Amino acid sequence: MVRDVSLPRAPDVDEVTRDYQMVGLSLKDHPMSFLREALNARGVLTAEAVKDERQIVHGRTVSVAGVVLFRQRPGTAKGVMFMTLEDETARIDLIVRPNIYERHRNAAVYSKLVLVRGRVERQGLVVHVLATHLHDIEELAANLPRLSRDFR
What we know:
Blueprint: H1 12-23, H2 36-41, H3 47-51, E1 61-72, E2 81-86, E3 91-96, H4 98-103, H5 105-110, E4 113-123, E5 126-136, E6 149-151
Parallel strand pairs: 1-6, 3-5
Antiparallel strand pairs: 1-2, 1-4, 2-3, 4-5
């Protein structure tokens, strides 16, 4: 005799985390979407808002957070690190100067989820954040998989 068994549905955050662990993306949602309420409470903007020059002007100090997609610290860059973060709205590029890199080394090198404070720099269509502070905020999302692809 076969009985129907009804299992509880897995929470969306579990499904998204599992998707990212298995294939590196999810069609259901982005991991940052589950953290947005807590980030908003800290005054953290979305990447999309930072990139919108009508909202955020050149030179303004902002906080933005995301999953680290890429880290690069090429030998030709004189100690400068380039990072790309992604949230549920867009990607944002960061420039981390050597003194900031040294001061926030653990977050810069090892964190999969980073909150950055810095100054918005615009040159035409190119927008990046010149980091002044990097904070590991993995405690907000302890179950997120390591997603960054690091090049050193």
